[in-house]
Amino acid sequence: MIALAGRTRGQPASRSHDNTDVSELPLPLPAEHIPPGTRDWRGTDTARWAAAAPARWTHPLWAVAALSAAAVWSIAAAPDDICTVARPCDADWEYVALSLVAVLTLYWTWRQPRLALAGLAVTAGGALLDAGPTALVTGPQDVAMLGALAFALLTLAHRVAARRRQRSLAEAAAGPERHRLPAEVRGFRRGRVSFVMASLLLAVSLFALWRGQSLVTGYEDRAERGTRTTAQVTEVDGDDDGATMKVTLPDGSTRRLTVLFPEDHPVGSTVVLVVDGGWTRLVAEPYDIVGWQLLLLGTAVPGLAFLANGLTGQRRQRRLDTIPLPVLKVLVREGEDNGRTWVYAADDLTARRPVLSFHSLYAVDDPDDPTDAYPEDMANGERPGPAADDMEAVRWEREIAEAVAACQDTEPPLREAVLYGAPRAGGEIAFLAMADDGDELEAERSVTPVKPVGVGLFPRTTWGARTRPGDPGDLGGAGGPEPTRGPRRTRSIAETARGMTRTSDPLVWSADRGSRIVGLLLLLVQGGGTWAILEDGFSWQSLLLVIGLPWLVHSVSTALNWRVTADRDGVWIAGAWRVRRLRWDEIAGVHQGSDSIRFSLTGGRDVELSPTGAAAIQQMRGGTAAATRAVDTLRVLRHHPELRPARDADPAEQGMPLGPLVVTAAVLWGVAVLMLS
User: Pick from 2, 8, 141, 673: CA 20 to 30 A from residue 448's CA?
Assistant: First the structure.
């Protein structure tokens, strides 16, 4: 975070206040932090940019689902390979490598379409070489696979082309001016965590590869020294992995062998063995390295994915750090419900239509030279100095104070920002904006791909009020309610208070249908997990219950039965294990997370109630979760004592913890599973 230098001499950003409420004023960005020639990214430009986003049908879920379904069908329809002396079940490293690329391609289809295109080419080429052109289509499952590959290729090509169009539109909107990132924002290291994870996972992969190949080499060495002979199967024990069979050699001696496919060696059949002293192996099933191959796949896939993510992050970091970039002036707001940064058009002063979103992190923290807001090597070689007009400085300070005060205890404020880089779906950008308190300048860089609003599989919609042409919220549309997707619009305290009257009885909010559905699903997971782990009695897997059961019990108890009661003197919070009392003078703030209610207390402590249901799902369906209503009302009651209920809550109104009952039920269920097993 960059300390703001010369703040009392700052030049306010120019804007019209004719049609804008004080609560809608964005925090201004001082002019000395705006590179010369920076253009506003206006609603007409953002509308064209949004229209160029990837189409809904190209969402990666459809391509991944098509490829996965076709692959499962092809595997199920493929004839079973029988291990024979002529074609033994060997290591088949080529198939392992092809499977590795195929699984990575599914992941890259979701995250990195360019790499996915390469993965599709390798997968299709490998399958063609393995089967041959004459055996490429042998049934409907192969037709389905070809169709899935073609569909995935089409969606990937469309997404790549859409990103190029969006970048071109953003560059055109920015004009010819190009500027380097501010010195304070450069050097933001990307990929370190990815490289660490990739190193660990790939080290395990190499170990699994070495162990598997060692078993193969060991068998080949012993087989060269040994002799081949035939034997008769006299006994087979077991019908799955780990089965054994007893064979009789020509000299009358017997050997017991572990076999992978006992159904291929019925009693009375003849098998071919390779014998080297006391060492005996089936020629058709020489070794079992499936476990090592699975370990290789299970670690190499995420390891290579982390490695690719790290390399991609470093490449994008160097691009942002080293070349002049287009710059755009926009408005930004941090979403209170999910922590994402939402970007709005520069003339969307009421934040009705978000354009894109991403998660971001501070690029710097207390740099040595906080006054250097952007580098010396600008287009004109100079930086504009701070304004000297005291009246303008006072006006700018007043705007910040009004905007911050209007947003206290509600949603984070809308802020002016300078966007560095051409935004596009899946890309990365950086921006400068004032901090929420208006005292410092924040330099942030995206750490997740840019996501255009409205291109998700199930885009959330919120309905804005009708706008009039010329209003700050009008972006050239026809007016009327228009669906937009963005952070939940938290009503201001004054707006909520106007619709409230004082009640004599305490106000109660409790688990609604969405919260109870979450609780029931977690209860099913708890019961099913207990059955799966204890079905065969106690084992090392029972430790999973010790680790996971406390969290499940807490979550189930809270989701099914949470309650918040507001009365004259404070708030009662009924969680999983206790009912807690918070007095009004203890509460410094009330906040809502994606599935929680958090009370900030004086002294820096927090009290959290979680889970309270998936509020985002309720919003997508057009409803309001009970937790959302509770947070909105509690914020008003904290600031308006005259609206608090007239009496204190009775014990029956305070709620009751459900945790002890759920623990008892879990213990009884575990005992029942053990008795039944």
Answer: 2
